[in-house]
Amino acid sequence: MNDIFDLREKRILIAGGGGDIGFACARAYGTCGATVLLFDIHEDRVRQGVERLRAEGFPADGWCGSITDPVFLEEMAGKIGGKYGSLDVLMNCAGVTSRKPMLEMSQKEWTEVIDVNLNGVFLLLKTFGNAFCGQGHGKVIQILSTGAYRFGPNFSSYGASKAGASALIKSLALEWAPYHVQVNGIAPTATETNFTRDYYLEHPEKKAAAIKNHPYQRLGTPEDYVGAAIFLASSASDFVNGEVIIVDSGKTV
Ligand SMILES: NC(=O)c1ccc[n+]([C@@H]2O[C@H](COP(=O)([O-])OP(=O)(O)OC[C@H]3O[C@@H](n4cnc5c(N)ncnc54)[C@H](O)[C@@H]3O)[C@@H](O)[C@H]2O)c1
To answer: Which residues have CB under 6 Å of ligand 1?
Structure first.
């Protein structure tokens, strides 16, 4: 029974793997036996992430660069291919947010969020999609957000980017089904990470309201998502495609 969650011999690349949710998933994948490769725009997060994984005895490697940079992505793909061979799983945790009324938002601010959270998904999947379809297997796991399905004021660019990414992966799930590539998502809820920490410190009332909004009366933690991440990376999910697992203690219901 345990074998269906076995990730030994699997090579997993995590975009935004230096972030809190990405790193929690990286550790979990390492625990399940995978070789964990990660990249992130923050060099220190990549270095620390790889060091921590290796210190725990997990094979790991990392690169610094942006999901919005097709040249970097191609070069990294070449290095990964040369050193590790083909990938089995591609997870994308890279993301940025903005909290601003749309009428106060510049076009540059709008584009910054759409570029990372939506255009970045396109570029990442363009870079690795051919190899996945060519080899006839592969699992894509896109980290979305409950904000892709439940909207609120001051989240126009974030909500649009995550809803767009949700539509993109569902479309690809069907396009790549003939090649036995599964494309799924995980939608985290409000979680205390680099993403939200400063905002919740500055606005404790927003944090209290967010906690109250959850049936379990707490925010998510990065570790709350690793179960879904292991499931979607493993053979346990081989017939699951175009699905988004919402992990929010039932808030979205
Ligand atoms: N924390 C939350 O409340 C929450 C809720 C729902 C969804 N999410 C999603 O979870 C994912 C992970 O976020 P997190 O909470 O771990 O925050 P985080 O800030 O710790 O992680 C995001 C990571 O993405 C990296 N990144 C940003 N822009 C990049 C780029 N251009 N190229 C490569 N890497 C880039 C950051 O450096 C960071 O390490 C994001 O996609 C976010 O939208 C977070």
So the answer is: 15-16, 18-22, 40-42, 45, 66-68, 93-96, 116, 143, 145, 188, 190-191, 193-196
Return the best residue to mutate from 21, 42, 124, 162 for the ligand 1 pocket (most ligand atoms within 8 A of CB).
21
CA–CA separation, 175 vs 138, rounded Å?
A: 13
* Architecture (CATH level 2) of domain 2-247: 3-Layer(aba) Sandwich (3.40)
Q: Where are the domains of the chain?
A: 2-247
pLDDT digit string, tens, across residues 32-71? 999 999 999 999 999 999 999 999 999 999 999 999 999 9
pLDDT at 109 over 70: yes
Residues serving a catalytic function are 158
Q: Mean pLDDT score of the chain, rounded to an integer?
A: 97
